[in-house]
Amino acid sequence: MGISATIYNTIFKRTSTMALAVIGSAFFFERTFDLGTDYFFDRHNEGKLWKHIKGRYQ
Amino acid sequence: MKPANVSSYLRSVSQVVSNQLNTGKQIAILPTKPTVHIPFTGTSPYVLSRALPNGNVSITSGPAVSCQVRWAHTDITVPDWSHYRKDSTKSPTSKAADSEDSRRNFAYLMVGGLSVGTAYGAKTLVTQFVSSMSASADVLAMAKIEIKLAEIPEGKSVTFKWRGKPLFIRHRTQSEIQAEQTVAVASLRDPQHDNERVQHPEWLVVLGVCTHLGCVPIANAGDFGGYYCPCHGSHYDASGRIRKGPAPLNLEVPQHSFVNEGLLVVG
Fold first, then answer.
1. pTM, 2 dp
2. pLDDT, tens digit (0-9, with 9 covering 90-100), for B231-257
3. pLDDT digit string (tens) for B129-186?
4. Predicted confidence (pLDDT) per residue in B50-80, tens digit
5. In whole angstroms, what is the distance from residue B3 CA to residue B28 CA?
6. What is the DSSP string of B54-91?
7. Which of A32, B98, B230, B255 has its CA at 20 to 30 Å from residue B243's CA atom?
């Protein structure tokens, strides 16, 4: 029994475990996706956002 | 066979196929002599193959030369789909059971990944809409007031405007505190001990809205020395509790906190 068979039997075979895996990974996906897109936005708008130019006025 | 006859053959066959009754009466009439009667005894492929022209039929002359016979396009090759197929199942000798789990996992992983994305999107959408219903930052900023307690002398009740309503801050004297602490709770209409209504005994914070019909009571008036509503004569004591008159409930105590000794934040 290979690793793919183990994955299938433990996660994908039952709807309950599949749904649990989806919800669990959605939790981590949300974290990483939000952080990643925010990081990209900050990098893309480097020097334009208030938090970047705050030091000049305070 | 002459070309002019072909159409009549085809017609008779089409009648036989579409209307299987009276097959014996359908006769392909050839214009040439002698008249040929072809009795259709059945519709089996063999009988039809005998009746239909087969082989290399070609029409070379005659008024109806434009008609043509189209055969099945056996010259078109089936496309090669192997580029789209999984390597594990390409070979005819491979067993499906050998690669079953990995192929199945791939399909479920696709479904699961899409579900994760959908769940994230749905959660974000719901959060956006729900959070749009909550108060915005400027409203929240207006929802609190800070009160410097040093400006309120002992024995005075000061009125502030808070969320569009009057707010009474009362600096109670020791005698008032003593009086309110010793009131028998069971004798009250809306039984609440003084300690439930104040955080520091010297400071009473209540909304100046009569619980009867919403008038603004007058401070330091009435039979109990607290508040008196002039509209219908409700008497409140120095703890804002209803003691006499039509009002059913005590004056409402809003959420408040003493940030430090001299500062009260209401809201």
1. 0.45
2. 898 888 888 888 888 888 888 888 888
3. 999 888 888 887 778 888 888 888 888 888 888 888 888 888 888 888 888 888 888 8
4. 777 777 776 666 666 666 666 667 777 778 8
5. 14
6. -SS----SSTTTT-------TTSPPP--TTTS-GGGTS
7. B255
* Distance from C-alpha of B19 to C-alpha of B33, rounded to nearest angstrom: 28
Q: Which residues of B lie closer than 8 Å to A, measured between beta carbons?
A: 101-102, 104-105, 108, 112, 115-117, 119-120, 123
Closest CA to B194 of B174, B178, B180: B180
Q: From CA B136, how far away is CA B144, in angstroms rounded?
A: 13
Q: Do A26 and B120 touch (CB under 8 A)?
A: yes
Residues of chain A under the 70 pLDDT cut: 1
Return the structure tokens found at A4: 């793919």
Helix (H) or strand (E) holding B44: none
Residue B201 identity: P
Helix, strand and coil content of chain A, in percent to the nearest 5, comes to 85, 0, 15
Local confidence band at B1 (pLDDT 50, 70, 90 cut-offs): low
In the predicted structure, residue B24 carries a pLDDT above the cut 60: no
Tokens representing B256 are 């408040």
Taking the Cβ of residue A40 and every Cβ of chain B, the question of whether any pair is shorter than 8 Å is answered with: no
Mutation pick from B105, B114, B128 vs chain A, by most beta carbons of A within 10 Å, is: B105
The interface pTM score, or ipTM, of the predicted complex is 0.87
- Pairing mode of beta strands B234-237, B225-229: antiparallel
Active site residue B171: no
Q: Is A8 on the interface with B (CB under 8 A)?
A: yes
B115 closest CB neighbour out of A11, A22, A33: A22
B111 vs A25: CA distance, rounded Å: 13
Instruction: With CA atoms as reference, report the closest residue to A22 among A37, A12, A36.
Output: A12
